[in-house]
Amino acid sequence: MKVAVFSTKPYDEQFLGQASRDSQEHELVFLEPRLNTTTAALAKGFDAVCVFVNDQVDGAVLEQLAEGGTRAVALRCAGFNNVDLKAAERLGIDVVRVPAYSPYAVAEHTVALILTLNRQIHRAYHRIRDGNFALDGLLGFDLRGRTVGVVGTGQIGLEVVRIMRGFGCRVLCHDLHTNPEAQQLGGEYVALDDLFSQADIVSLHCPLTPDTHHLINADAVAKMKQGVMLINTSRGAMVDTAAIIEGLKSGQIGYLGLDVYEEEGDLFFEDLSNIVLKDDVFARLLTFPNVVITGHQAFFTRNALESIARTTLGNLTELESTGQCANRVTAPAG
């Protein structure tokens, strides 16, 4: 297939390019702009487009792609909430994704945020560089014996359960579907309200759906322990940022670690260091000393990028050769 790769960064070109050279099955054209109604014309004449989390793949864009001859959308990520699946189905465009690349990468980053917040690594780093070796304000706590709530026990959540059990934590789980492996590791499935009320650390690992949109709102925060640590490495819109800010101001939330943000499309993956941020809500988050934010980098390991590239191109090969793909996503019935 001839494939237009949108939102290309140097690492995308490196890993997708290598996978393409290894397979010699597809012709990739790398494009820096994000896919939207303005840039969709760039895909005219391409069999497929390859997109990422902040590309716009709504009905209007899909109409343009279909008119230009595109018949497949290959997501180089697991989430597909930015794709209008019903419109894709109506237009005869196949949508494929990478359901699992390296759950270890995201799980390990989750724990990195937990450890950074707990032991104040972010603050200690800057203090030492300034010649300040005082320990006041850097007090942490032992993770052993603490209760961790894992919301979503798919492949990533499962690895978080495994790691936190290794720290000697009690782990509470909540998911629509019980994962027997999580139970074997010692995870205890409880109602969501019970998880909120008992957990010292709450970590989110759910897909973004209408049911999980703003799962963490003012009501949820009020049910949590005073001084709770909240971690989100899943999707930004699972968290109502305004409610989180109020929780931080009141002390109900004692620590916040984010790798995703609801309005990240205007921020993440770009170098904005020389301009003034226009997002007042995000700017407010940055003022809190007990908040650590990374720019959607939890997936960003060599292992994960190699896996993403192989699976993305493998999906297109499977579609081209059989008309089917095990990693195809479709609109829910009804």
UniProtKB/TrEMBL annotation:
Keyword annotations: NAD, Oxidoreductase
Superkingdom of origin: Bacteria
CDD domains in the cross-refs: LDH_like_2 (cd12183)
Group of enzyme by EC: oxidoreductase
InterPro entries noted in UniProt: D-isomer_2_OHA_DH_cat_dom, D-isomer_DH_CS, D-isomer_DH_CS1, D-isomer_DH_NAD-bd, D-LDH-like, NAD(P)-bd_dom_sf
Chain coiled-coil ranges: none
GO molecular function terms listed in the Swiss-Prot or TrEMBL record: D-lactate dehydrogenase (NAD+) activity
SUPFAM superfamilies tied to this protein: Formate/glycerate dehydrogenase catalytic domain-like, NAD(P)-binding Rossmann-fold domains
Domain D-isomer specific 2-hydroxyacid dehydrogenase NAD-binding intervals: 111-298
Annotated ranges, domain D-isomer specific 2-hydroxyacid dehydrogenase catalytic: 3-329
Pfam family of the protein (one): 2-Hacid_dh
EC number: 1.1.1.28
Family: Belongs to the D-isomer specific 2-hydroxyacid dehydrogenase family.
Protein name as annotated: 2-hydroxyacid dehydrogenase
Organism: Marinobacter shengliensis
Source species taxonomy: Bacteria, Pseudomonadati, Pseudomonadota, Gammaproteobacteria, Pseudomonadales
